[in-house]
């Protein structure tokens, strides 16, 4: 990892407040190509909010976002997708009443030359991409409401990787999954990483993500406690960052660190 | 057949029973079939109770004309309810727009371009549709961009537009309508006659066959599982039979003798001894309703907009996060609803040959009931245009059948109310079982 190249994502001094509560308060965080950064913190630490600003779901009050070193204007989910930022939300954010193909292409439908939906072509690539992620998946005609938790998760993941994402945000990606499916997601993260995609992993449980991440960034009360390379800190030290906001010697302290 | 998907689908199919296999092969909507079944039962019951007066070409033809107005609006109500909204103002909007169209052709245009000008009907209709679109857009804007719940906005609209309809002429009824405009409402003149009805029927049959072939070709393109050939032929045959049967029925209803006499005199035709039989054929309002249904079905199933409507209904937040401009889609839905109200207003104004400020009163409830009986879920995300139109036909069959039996109006209302509740209850059970 050479830090001389421009970071894929560089969020600087991001702040957002909801009715007087500063959910994110001057947070800075960056991500390099082929890197996995785990964003950790308690429930309500501001990590999901920070990441929703990047994915365009929330509009920041202040701060800048740079993509590949250039300032990016992201004010809605469409903008973010145009920069190759794809998000897998904790709630999966699937349209329950339409089928898998319709979900994969929601907002970016394939059209026939006559301007109508090309359902057959969409189903074709849906079968292709789902075949890679979950080869036993066959229920292409059913609304995703009828699918199991793991199947829904693979639909959400397929949607994120279908459009050649360069930055992938995964919010609690394994929270709803069994051990086998969790391992599958781990494999997928390694594969995407090797393709040069930068990944933000968001979790409140460090055991889920510690072995997958290159770096960890810890948030508390809307501020960044510190960031550290995984090799420079151990799990206990990271736990100390999450719970106490105490920055260990191996980490670079942020504004939220207590002395 | 190297595609594993196909062999797996086949393997699944073989586990099913013969009936289930039939439904899977034909991809028939069992829910819709159930509704048609209910409709047939109601028709047969009225036929029996009325001593054979219900299932006559005349009654069914009238039924189709009476259904048109609500059926047109029900197609739009589906989109509104699917996105978890409601529109209580459609009856009042119908009344107001009907009034605008009435005044335009009976009082405004005659001064400008003369009485019975050939362009009168299209100008009046155009002004009506623009007015409807503006009203729908205005309400949709408040709902989508200002965030006021649809229930409240359209409840306000219910009062506002009914009052506005009164305001246009201070409550005076406007009549008569332009003679060309009147064709929109049906009647012997407003029907297309036997020959054209057959033409329409045959074109419809060709379209059905063409669509089936095209969809088969599309699926072949990517080597997807296809319906068995017998199922395709079966579906094509049933559809064509239904279409041609409806045409034959409409053609079996002849002009009343008085009108035939007047027509014969006007055209110097000598009425033969056996009497002169002129077929009504399909009524213009029915054609309009069917065309609206086809267009709306196309919009909901084949366009981006339709896809977004259903995605939003299933999970509004997810649709937003997927980058869909949900507010604009919501506003568009209400614009469409306004246009459909205008079309429905044209039909009922033309049929009545007058515009009154009470027109369309309580139509909002009939429209919502038609959509809901037709399988549109108030929880959002589920509904079909065809279902809503059959729902409208079912409601109209009930009330017109009860009129035929001479039931008192209060009793009619009680029955319609009960049927609505029971229908939704049965649907809830059906959904729970199939989910």
The number of helices of chain A is 8
Sheet of most strands of chain A: 7 strands, mixed
Count of separate DSSP helical elements of chain B: 17
Low-confidence stretches of chain A: none
What is the C-level CATH assignment of the largest domain in chain A? Alpha Beta
Describe the main β-sheet of chain B briefly: none
Helix content of chain B: over 70%
Counted beta strands of chain A = 11
Low-confidence stretches of chain B: 1-11
Q: What quaternary form is this?
A: heterodimer
Structural class category of chain B: mainly alpha
Strand order of the largest sheet of chain A: 6-7-8-3-9-10-11
How many structural domains in the coordinates of chain A?
Answer: 2
- N-to-C series of helices and strands of chain A: EEEHEEHEHHHEHEHEEHE
The secondary-structure class of chain A comes to alpha/beta
CATH topology of the largest domain in chain A: Rossmann fold
GO molecular function (chain B): transmembrane transporter activity
Function (chain B): Part of the binding-protein-dependent transport system for D-xylose. Probably responsible for the translocation of the substrate across the membrane.
Transmembrane segments (chain B): 32-49, 61-81, 88-106, 118-135, 142-161, 195-213, 233-255, 275-299, 333-354, 366-395, 402-426
Protein name (chain B): Xylose transport system permease protein XylH
Characterise this structure:
The complex is a heterodimer of chains A (259) and B (435). Chain A has 2 domains: 1-84 and 166-259, P-loop containing nucleotide triphosphate hydrolases (Rossmann fold); 96-164, no CATH class. In chain A, helix 6 (179-194) links the parallel strand 7 and strand 8. In chain A, the strands form 2 sheets. Chain A has a 7-stranded mixed sheet with strand order 6-7-8-3-9-10-11, sandwiched between helices. In chain A, strands 2-1-4-5 form a 4-stranded antiparallel sheet, covered by helices on one side. Chain A has 8 helices and 11 strands. The two termini of chain A are 30 Å apart. Chain A has helices at residues 47-54, 77-82, 100-104, 119-133, 149-161, 179-194, 206-209, 235-244, and strands at 9-18, 21-31, 36-40, 62-67, 70-71, 85-88, 167-171, 198-203, 215-220, 223-229, 252-253. With 259 residues, chain A is of the alpha/beta class. Chain B is an all-alpha fold. Chain B has a domain at 58-191 and 283-386. Chain B is built from 17 helices and no strands. The two termini of chain B are 31 Å apart. The relative contact order of chain B is 0.18. Mean pLDDT of chain B is 90; it is low at 1-11.
């Amino acid at each position: 990892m050479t830090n001389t190249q421009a970071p894929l994502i560089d969020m600087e001094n991001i702040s957002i407040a909801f009715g007087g509560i500063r959910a994110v308060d001057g947070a800075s965080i960056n991500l390099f190509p082929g890197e996995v950064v785990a964003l950790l913190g308690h429930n309500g630490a501001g990590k999901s909010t920070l990441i929703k600003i990047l994915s365009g779901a929330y509009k920041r009050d202040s701060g800048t976002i740079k993509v590949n070193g250039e300032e990016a204007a992201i004010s809605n989910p469409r903008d973010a997708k145009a920069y190759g930022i794809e998000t897998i939300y904790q709630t999966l954010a699937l349209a329950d009443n339409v089928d898998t193909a319709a979900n994969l292409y929601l907002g970016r439908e394939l059209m026939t030359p006559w301007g109508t939906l090309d359902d057959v072509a969409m189903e074709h690539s849906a079968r292709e991409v789902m075949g890679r992620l979950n080869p036993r998946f066959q229920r292409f005609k059913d609304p995703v409401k009828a699918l199991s938790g793991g199947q829904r998760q693979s639909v959400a993941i397929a949607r994120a990787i279908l459009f050649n994402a360069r930055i992938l945000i995964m919010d609690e990606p394994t929270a709803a999954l069994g051990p086998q499916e969790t391992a599958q997601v781990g494999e997928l993260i390694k594969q995407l990483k090797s393709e040069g995609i930068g990944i933000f992993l968001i979790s409140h449980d460090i055991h889920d993500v510690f072995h997958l991440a290159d770096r960890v960034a810890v948030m508390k009360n809307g501020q960044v406690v510190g960031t550290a390379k995984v090799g420079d800190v151990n799990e206990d030290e990271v736990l100390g960052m999450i719970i106490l906001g105490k920055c260990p010697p191996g980490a670079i302290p942020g504004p939220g660190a207590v002395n | 057949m190297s595609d594993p998907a196909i062999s797996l689908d086949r393997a699944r199919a073989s586990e099913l029973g013969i009936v289930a296999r039939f439904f899977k092969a034909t991809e028939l909507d069992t829910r819709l079939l159930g509704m048609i079944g209910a409709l047939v039962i109601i028709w047969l019951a009225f036929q029996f109770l009325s001593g054979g007066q219900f299932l006559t070409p005349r009654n069914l033809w009238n039924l189709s004309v009476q259904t048109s107005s609500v059926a047109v609006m029900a197609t739009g109500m589906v989109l509104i309810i699917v996105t978890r909204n409601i529109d209580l103002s459609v009856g009042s909007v119908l009344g107001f727009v009907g009034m605008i169209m009435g005044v335009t052709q009976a009082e405004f245009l005659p001064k400008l371009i003369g009485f019975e000008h050939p362009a009168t009907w299209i100008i009046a209709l155009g002004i009506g549709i623009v007015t409807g679109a503006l009203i729908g857009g205005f309400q949709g804007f408040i709902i989508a961009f200002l965030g006021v719940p649809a229930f409240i906005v359209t409840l306000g609209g219910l009062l506002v537009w009914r009052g506005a309809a009164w305001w246009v002429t201070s409550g005076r009824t406007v009549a008569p309508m332009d003679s060309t405009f009147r064709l929109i409402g049906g009647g012997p003149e407003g029907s297309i006659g036997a020959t054209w009805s057959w033409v329409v029927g045959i074109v419809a049959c060709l379209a059905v066959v063409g669509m089936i072939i095209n969809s088969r070709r599309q699926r072949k393109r990517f080597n997807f599982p296809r319906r068995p050939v017998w199922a395709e032929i079966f579906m094509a045959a049933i559809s064509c039979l239904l279409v041609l049967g409806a045409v034959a029925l409409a053609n079996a209803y002849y002009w009343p003798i008085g009108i035939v006499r007047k027509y014969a005199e006007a055209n110097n035709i000598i009425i033969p001894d056996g009497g002169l039989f002129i077929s009504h054929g399909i009524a213009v309002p029915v054609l309009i309703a069917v065309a609206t249904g086809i267009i709306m079905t196309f919009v909901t199933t084949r366009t981006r907009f339709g896809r977004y409507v259903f995605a939003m209904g299933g999970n509004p937040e997810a649709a937003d996060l997927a980058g869909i401009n949900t507010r604009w889609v919501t506003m568009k839905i209400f614009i469409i609803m306004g246009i459909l109200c205008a079309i429905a207003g044209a039909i009922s104004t033309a049929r009545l040959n007058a515009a009154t400020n009470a027109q369309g009163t309580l139509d909002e409830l009939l429209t919502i009931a038609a959509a809901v009986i037709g399988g549109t879920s108030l929880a959002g995300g589920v509904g079909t245009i065809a279902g809503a139109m059959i729902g409208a036909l079912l409601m109209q069959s009930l009330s017109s059948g009860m009129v035929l039996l001479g039931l008192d109006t209060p009793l009619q209302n009680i029955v319609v109310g009960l049927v609505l509740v029971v229908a939704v209850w049965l649907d809830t059970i059906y959904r729970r079982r199939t989910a």
